[in-house]
Write a structure and sequence with these properties.
Blueprint (H helix, E strand, L loop, with lengths): L2 E11 L2 H12 L8 E8 L4 H11 L2 E7 L3 E3 L4 H11 L3 E4 L2 E3 L14 E7 L6 E5 L5 E4 L1 E2 L3 E4 L16 H11 L3 E5 L6 E3 L9 H12 L4
Parallel strand pairs: 1-2, 1-3, 5-12, 7-13
Antiparallel strand pairs: 3-11, 4-13, 5-11, 6-7, 6-10, 7-8, 9-12
Organism: Romboutsia weinsteinii
Pfam families: Glyco_tranf_2_5
Protein name: Streptomycin biosynthesis protein StrF domain-containing protein
Length: 220
């Protein structure tokens, strides 16, 4: 049985200095009374999906926060906010901070004309605010970016298809939909996360895009 009072923070780690900053932010979060957090760094793992599946096997936490090592949670009431949403909305399986209401036919969420969310990120080389903040407390979406994916139910990550760092996140969103769970992005009165990734590494990007489209073309 899952522990309904535990939140696990799960990260695939290959840079200890970067992860240390991520961990400092997690440890600074307000933890509601009667809840506990669990820190799960996965090291020396072949890929993200494999790492996240390992974490599912080793943690009994009902709530799991899958985040990149270069994602900084800067909103101190992050835990309280996600718990409030999940408890009030048992049909929501996953939350994110940025994504899209409709996945485009090319599978690339940021090409959507219906982007949703708010974040500070550095994919252009400099930190900047990206703001598609919804006007209502919760916006239902089809996809969220993998910089942070927050769940209250477990669904296996498709390591049979994705052995890299691209499209595993959009795949997981569709797998949640297959299991009849909704995905949502909350309105952020203040930015919840900074994603200081630098310019994106697009190695094998198109390879994984083709894998994604072949598997899910009839579902987007």
């Amino acid at each position: 049985m899952p522990n309904n009072n535990k939140i696990a923070f799960i990260t695939c780690v290959n840079n200890e200095d970067v992860y240390s900053t991520c961990l400092d932010r997690i440890n600074n979060l307000f933890i509601p009374y009667n809840y506990e957090i669990e820190i799960i760094p996965i090291r020396d793992s072949p890929n993200i999906c494999n790492s996240y599946n390992k974490a599912i096997q080793q943690s009994d936490a009902k709530y799991k926060v899958y985040l990149h090592q270069d994602t900084l949670i800067v909103y101190i009431n992050f835990i309280s906010s996600i718990l409030e949403i999940f408890i009030k909305n048992p049909d929501i399986g996953m939350l994110g901070v940025i994504g899209c209401k409709k996945i485009p036919t090319n599978g690339i969420w940021w090409d959507s004309i219906q982007k949703v969310g708010r974040i500070i990120e550095s994919s252009s080389g400099n930190l900047k605010l990206i703001n598609y903040n919804p006007s209502k407390p919760i916006e239902y979406v089809e996809a969220v970016d993998g910089l942070i994916m927050i769940t209250q139910y477990d669904t296996e990550w498709r390591e049979d298809l994705f052995s890299g760092c691209h499209f595993y996140d959009i795949s997981q969103c569709i797998e949640f939909k297959r299991n009849n769970y909704k995905i949502a992005i909350p309105m952020q009165s203040t930015v919840w996360c900074i994603h200081d990734s630098g310019v994106a590494n697009l190695d094998k990007y198109h390879t994984y895009k083709n894998i994604f489209l072949e598997e899910y073309v009839n579902l987007i």
